[in-house]
Amino acid sequence: MPDEIPEGPEAATHPADRSSSSSPTRPWLLALIAGLVSALALLPGLLEPGLWSRYELPVFDHARALMGETVTDVPHMPWLSSWARAWAIALLHDPAALRLPGALATCGTVGLTVWIARIRGAGTPVALLAGGFVLAFPGVVQQARVAIGNPIGEFLATLAVAAGLHALARRPAPQWWSALLAGLLCVAALVLGTTASGVVLGALIPLLAIGFLSPRPLSDRVPTWLPATVLWLAALGIASLAARLALHQGEGYIPILGAAQHLDIMSRPAARQFAQIIEDVGFQMFPWLPIMALGALATHRDRWPTMWLLSGFTICGLWTLLYGRIAIPLAVPAALCCAAAIAEFTDAHSSRAVRRFAVLVGLAGFLILAKDAGRTPSRVGMPITDRRGEHNYAAAEIGADAQLPRSAKLAALGLLLAFLVAPAPSSAQDPRWRRRLMAPLDALPEPARALAPVGVVFVILGIHTAGAIHLQNQTALHESPMRALKNHRALVADGQLPETLALGQVRDAAIELYGPPPEHQQFLRGHSELTSWLSAAEPAAALIRASDLPFLTQQHRADGWPLFVLDHSNRNLALVSNVLPPGFDDENPLYAVLRDAVPDLPGGHTTLVQFEGLLDVVAWRVSGSVVRGRDFDLELVLVAHGKLPATTEIYARLQQGRVSRINPLPQQIAENLYPPKHWREGDIIVHRVTIQAPALEVLPGDHQLVVGLRRTKTANFEITIPADKTGAHDVTIIDKRRNFAAIGTVPVY
Prior knowledge:
This protein is of the alpha+beta class. It has 25 helices and 19 strands.
């Protein structure tokens, strides 16, 4: 670190910052601008989505308990965050106001990131870029838009680091009071951070970050070793205390640690490995991990963010071995490394070999993360929640399975464009086409030319932030029953539905917030009571589990009484009624896959394959051309002859011999919207699936469309029609056990 905090023209120590370092913009002004922009991005619509039943209601209960209400089974949480949330609820008289402190704290964190970057020598564009990276991290956005995680603790930790940075800067003797005030602010932030996120995450990590500043003497009267010794002794004492408390903690909650040990990890220590912290960081900072790694390893200007990041990374990894997944409080050093990487590798003075290496590493990393996000979208869509299984996340309903891989590929494209437009020394060895292509950019003034790659990255960051906010808003529809219950209240007020709402074995704590009063709730037990309630002659409504909808739909079709789904915005719940009010459409998702007659598939093909007299495959269609690296849609029309086991799955793959296969694994039939255990004679099910043809793993040429039916993980259904090896419509049995049949040929390009 330099002898004093660099400000003004002498601040820039990297060539990429020279064009902007002469700007008189003060760091505090840049921080204020960044905070205001963050508020404009995060605050609109913050209170509109309902509280998430599983994750936000426990936080709401803790805040209510601090407000003096009688609440049972209140979870243990650090008190500062809950106190701030309780204050916000009391101020705005809205339960969703508990999100406001976290959103404001995130805005403060973004502003402090810009201030720290500018103080450490970054030019104005790069400092603002660091704040943009913080705002583009999915983990940060989720903490800001949902009352989970610990954004207040991260803000206080960042404030402590910023205050420590200012306090340890060398300054003239008459300004000793400035260092004293900054030091007091640092201590206060550390104490408050302990009450917000525990002594390890709230005090130890920022203390280590301050210690890595390698402070110079504050003045001629203060020796060099004194502040460093105090910092490292304090960090050692906190680490020793935390280690002793954690090792002897047992099952209890210790307020100074701000956590209780994870029950699954206590019973199965192997359930959590240290290497999983890499996954957590990668998903919470998706998809910027490759850029962060490049910035941490390659920057020669300022190693301090790298040391902060690595020390915090190690501590968080050890912490999760006892307490499970957490919100990683390292967004600030990660953003500083990302911004440093962009500045480093778009600098006109950097070597072309270094640039090309950075591009290759970044592109490869983005594409790998894109594939991971498509495979496990819940890890990015809900990065700081302890959600088990992709089946519990509404990825397809909100489009996360497509949006997240696309966003990683967009980041790859942005990185490539940033390097293409970055200034570079001309060379006679450059191809003529490249010199002509870059001539308009080279003709721009030097400041505008230097800002071009930063502008490209800013655009990509803005798109990512908007996408992350949209994803959280859509996820709220599936995590809260607010919309369905509000629709019921509106229909009751209009006289379209009776006041009493039946609850079909639904036990959701959010009903207390958004539903009718207890005297207008009717709890139903079992399918028989639910069927009797909805099949009555008078209007009736019920909030049911989504898993009960196939049974009700089957009974409604068999007996002829009306059934309408008025709201299915929540993935696990549905508002149903035996009347369809004006202005409402039937949102029953089963009608997308369940038909009364075989549908006409333009461009489709007729076939006939029967599995043990229980299920027929009668038609198929591939929409569009199958091109490697692109998606295509496959449809199968199935005719049921009765119920099948609940474990039944279908194979529908394209294969060329034993080498080239597309979609080789079995899948749930029709997305399991209408499970096989509910099927009845004559049901026609349309199985639709969107498949991505691998870009490299498959060969071009004609592929057979092969179908099969899996009974269990170790057994398949036998094909009974055709009885011979070949049958009508060019159907061919392709295995000795008669489990798979080729029903057509599809070219792959």
